[in-house]
Model the fold of this input.
Amino acid sequence: LKVDKFTGVTTAGSIDVTDGSTTTNLQQGLAKHWGNLDGTGTIAIRDSFNTSSATDIATGTYRFDYTNNMANINYSLQESVNETTGTEGNLNRYSAIDHVDTGFCRFGATFNSSYLDVDELYTAAFGDLA
Done:
């Protein structure tokens, strides 16, 4: 089966996937944004989906702007960090979601209660697009 587009019968943008007695809405389960950011020096987006730009707000605080807005601010945003620079044992960096908005997310990393620039930051958003 080769197709370029699936369209729901009842609702054009909604496809239900059934596994026995459990039904899952395919559209609801897809990430609406994800991003991989280099947060040190001159920041750079390594790769992303539905991300138009990244901004270095301050030490350890960044912003991803969405290409297509979320429908509301009640979406789920996840963030994780990976510190690959410096010495071994840098596993004590904490991800910090600072703010969610329909058009962007602001996030960062902390260490010892202070914001810290980190080499790798990852975000993913799940919810409804506008």
